[in-house]
Fold this protein.
Amino acid sequence: MTTPIATSQTILVVGGGISGMTAALEAAECGKQVILLEKSPTLGGRTSLLYRYFPKLCHPVCGLEINLRRLKGNRNVRVITMAEVTRISGTRGNYTVAAKVSPRYINENCTACGECARAVSAEIPNPYNYGLDQMKVAYLPHDMAYPLRYVLDPSAIGTEEAGKAQAACKYSAVDPGMQEEALELTVGAVIWATGWQPYDAAKIQPYGYDRFPNVITSLEFERLCDPHGPTGGRILRSSDGKEAKNIAFIQCAGSRDENHLRHCSRICCMASLKQTQYVRDVYGEDGKSTIYYIDIRAIDRFEDFYQKVRKDPTVSFIKSKVARIAQESKSGDLILHGVDTEGYHRYANTHDLVVLAVGMAPSVHGADIPAEIVADSSGFLEPGSGIFGAGCASGPLDVNRSVQHATAAALRAIQVINQNSNAEPAP
Amino acid sequence: MSELNIKYHNDFLKEVEENVEEGKWVKMCMQCGVCAGSCPLGPHWAHPPQELFMMVRAGKRAEVLGSDSMWMCTSCYNCVVRCPRKLPITQIMHGLATYSNQLGLTPKIQPTRDFSILFWKNCTRTGRVNELKLTLGLYFMDGFMAGIKKGWAMRGIGLGLVKAGRLNAFELLKGHVCKDQKGIRAMLNKAAEIEQRRKRPAV
Ligand SMILES: Cc1cc2nc3c(=O)[nH]c(=O)nc-3n(C[C@H](O)[C@H](O)[C@H](O)COP(=O)(O)OP(=O)(O)OC[C@H]3O[C@@H](n4cnc5c(N)ncnc54)[C@H](O)[C@@H]3O)c2cc1C
Ligand code: SF4
Ligand code: SF4
Ligand code: SF4
Ligand code: SF4
C-alpha cells in the first residue's frame, strides 16, 4: 500500500458507518481532501446489519447504495479499511495521526468471484450475524460490502486453509505473507465517527442472557428477521429450532440504569415498536408481541408510529420493568416476573422468546486520543476545537439524526481547513 | 381545593423528606417496578416499595404511615442492588417504620415492632443481649399459655443448646452484664439526644 498524501488541508474521518461516510462525502463534495479510516473490512457500520429502518420500514440497502455511489464518483475521498488510529498528537489545524492497517491477506486483484470461500473448509462465528451462525475463513462480510473484496481470516494463516484459498484464486489475489502496516498522516481536522456498541447483555444478571438460549438481543433479532440472515427470515429459537410466536420485548435493558448505562439510548423504544411489525409480517394475526416498558420514548416525529403500533391487536404493552427471568427447563420457555405500575399487579408471564432492547454504549475506546477530547458522563464525545464527534460516537442517535449530526461535523471540520488555507496562502 | 387537601396531604412528600431517614430519595423513584418484582416478601405485602413511594408522593399520609408493609422488610437488599436509580430502598423502608412508630401510627398488632421493642429493652438494660430472656420474652409475648406451648415445642432444641454449652439456665437469674454500666447509659442518652436534634417530628 502506498501511503496517502495528506497535509494540514486534509480531513481525517475515523469510522466508516453511516455517520463517517456522510461526513466524508459532505466534506469531499465541498472539494476538501478526505481520508476515511475504517476498522473492519467494509464500510457501512451497524446499519448494514439492520433488517429495516424505522419509521418507513425501508431496507437499509437503499441508503447505503446511494452513499456508495456518491463515494465511487468522488476522487477526494481515500478509503482505508482494516485501519485503526493508534495515536493523535498536535493541535487544531495540524495533527499528526498514527494508524495501523491490519493485513487482509487478499489484495486489489480480487474480483469477488468467491472461489477461495468455496475452496476452504474451516469456519468461524459470523460477526455480521452476531455469532448466530458460522462463516468460512475466506469471506465477503456481506452483500453490500465496500470495497467489494474478500477477506482471509488471520486464523487461516499458517494452516493449509490459506494454501487452499491461494490455490483456488485465479487472479493471484490471495497473499498470506501480507504484513501489518503503520501509517503516519498529517491532517488539519479529525472527525471521530466510531459509532456505538451494544451494551453487554450478559451483565444484566437477572435476565440470564448468558444462561438462557431463548433470551436474545434486539440486534440478534434484526438478523433473525432478515431473509438474508442466519435463519432466512424465520424467527427460530436457538434452544430447539422451533418458531417463536409469543415474543416479549424488554425495554431499557441496560439503559437508564445507574448500574449499567446511565443514559436513555433513545432509539430502542422505536426499535422494539418496529420489531413488533416484523412479527406481524411473519405471522399475521397469529403472532403476539408484548412490550414491557418504563415509558415509551418515541422521540419527536415518531409518535405517529407509536400510535399505529398501539392500535395493532397483536401487540400488547405492560408498563413495568421486568424484575427477573426464569427458564422452564423442559420447554425452554421463559417466565417473566415483575409488578406492573398501572395497578401494581404481580405477574409471571410465559413467552417463547425474549428480546432485550439493549442500550447503546459509545465505541470510542482503544485509541490514545488527545486530552482535548472530552466525553460526557456516559463516555460520548463532546465537540472539541479541531476533533469532532459525529453520529453515535457523540450520543445515541437514529440514522436520520446521525446523518444530520455528521453533516454538521463536516462543516466544523471544513471551517478548520479553511482557516488553515487562509493563514498560509496557496503556493 | 380544601377538600382535596384533606384527602391528599400534598406536603406529605416534604414531611417524609424532612423526617424519614433517606426520605429525600423518594422523589427520585421512576416507578419502574424492579424493586417490587425483586422483593422476596413482595407477594405477602399490601404495598411493595414502589407503590409505597408513589403513595408518599400522592400524599396518602394515613395509608403510608399506617401500613404494615415497611415492617415486613427483611433487609435482604435485593431491591437496592437492582434499583436503576440506586435508591437506598431498605433504609427508606426502615425509616418509614421508625417514623410511623414515633408518631404512634403503627398498626396495633405488629410483631416486627413488638419484637424490636423487646430486643431494644433487653439489650439496653445491661448493654448485652440476654438471649435466654429475649427468647422467653418472645414466647410469652402472646400470653402465658401460648408461651408454655411454644417453650414445650422447642424443648428439644433448648436442651441441645444447654448440652452444647450454648445456653446457660443461670442467665435467667442475673446473667452477664457490661462492665461500664454508667458509660453505656451515657452513650445511649447521647445517641437519643442526637436523634432528637436531627428529627423533629411534625405532628
Ligand atoms: C436494535 C436496533 C435497531 C435500530 N433500528 C434503527 C432503525 O430502524 N432506524 C434508524 O434510523 N436507526 C436504527 N438504529 C440506530 C442505528 O443503528 C444508528 O443510528 C447507526 O448505526 C449510527 O451509525 P454510526 O455511523 O454513527 O455508527 P456505526 O454504525 O456504529 O458505525 C461506526 C463505524 O466505525 C467503525 N469503527 C469503530 N471503532 C473504530 C475505530 N477505533 N477505528 C476505525 N473505525 C472504527 C465501525 O467498524 C463502524 O463501521 C437501530 C439501533 C439498534 C440497536
Ligand atoms: S480472493 Fe481470488 S478467489 Fe477469492 S474472491 Fe477474490 S478473486 Fe475470487
Ligand atoms: S429509548 Fe426507550 S427502551 Fe431505549 S433507553 Fe430510552 S426509554 Fe429505554
Ligand atoms: S426499583 Fe427504584 S426506581 Fe424502580 S420502582 Fe423501585 S425504587 Fe423506584
Ligand atoms: S430489602 Fe426489604 S424491601 Fe428490599 S427486597 Fe429485601 S425485603 Fe424487600
Observations:
- Chain B touches chain A at residues 30-38, 42-43, 47-48, 50-51, 81-86 (CB under 8 Å).
- The mean pLDDT of chain B is 88.
